[in-house]
Design brief:
This protein is α/β, with parallel strands linked by helices. Helix content is 44%, strand content 18%. It binds adenosine-5'-diphosphate (ADP).
């Protein structure tokens, strides 16, 4: 059984993330979408909300599971018996950071490989931050995120008056 971890902030999950998840499940038997606590980011959604949104957006695919982890990614990967860490590469601008992370993770655990997947080109300009920015100003993001995420974004900004 080939297992992969797809780590990220997923604040919130977008159609770009879903594209990568689908590609990953054609290669791996099981993909754990894993919410990492990124100390450099100030999330809009709580971990529980993000987890629920990932689960609702991927519930048709039985080979996908969503989890939250703390601590080192490579240690989490080993604990899940994962062979690979999946990351999405959108453009050259992603490369430097991803390259550094992949080599550092390899340094920490030689047996966990990082695999890069490229999304459909229509998602290459998409990230969670831009989605939040558009939604905050009342823009329509329904083409870029699953319906459940779209609804949550609306609720969040209506209730909180950001
Ligand atoms: P992180 O904070 O770890 O970068 P993100 O949730 O922003 O977390 O992204 C998780 C992973 O998904 C990263 O590898 C990122 O490059 C990738 N990713 C994000 N948006 C897209 C997209 N639109 N298409 C393909 N990959 C994406």
């Amino acid at each position: 059984m080939k297992i992969a971890i797809y780590p990220g902030s997923f604040d919130p999950i977008t159609n770009g993330h879903l594209d990568i998840i689908e590609r990953a499940t054609t290669i791996f038997d099981k993909v754990f979408v894993a919410i990492a606590q990124n100390t450099a980011k100030d999330p809009l959604f709580t971990v529980e909300e993000r987890l629920r949104l990932i689960k609702k957006s991927t519930n048709k695919n039985k080979n996908v599971e969503a989890e939250h982890f703390t601590g080192l990614l490579v240690e989490y990967a080993v604990s899940k018996k994962a062979h690979a860490i999946i990351r999405g590469l959108r453009a050259v601008s992603d490369f430097e950071y991803e390259f550094q992370m992949a080599l550092m993770n390899r340094n920490l655990r030689e047996d966990v490989e990082t695999v890069f997947l490229m999304p459909n080109e229509k998602y290459t300009y998409l990230n969670s931050s831009i989605i939040k920015e558009i939604a905050r100003h009342g823009g329509d993001v329904s083409n870029f995120v699953p319906e459940v995420v779209n609804n949550h974004l609306r609720q969040k900004f209506e209730n909180n008056n950001f």
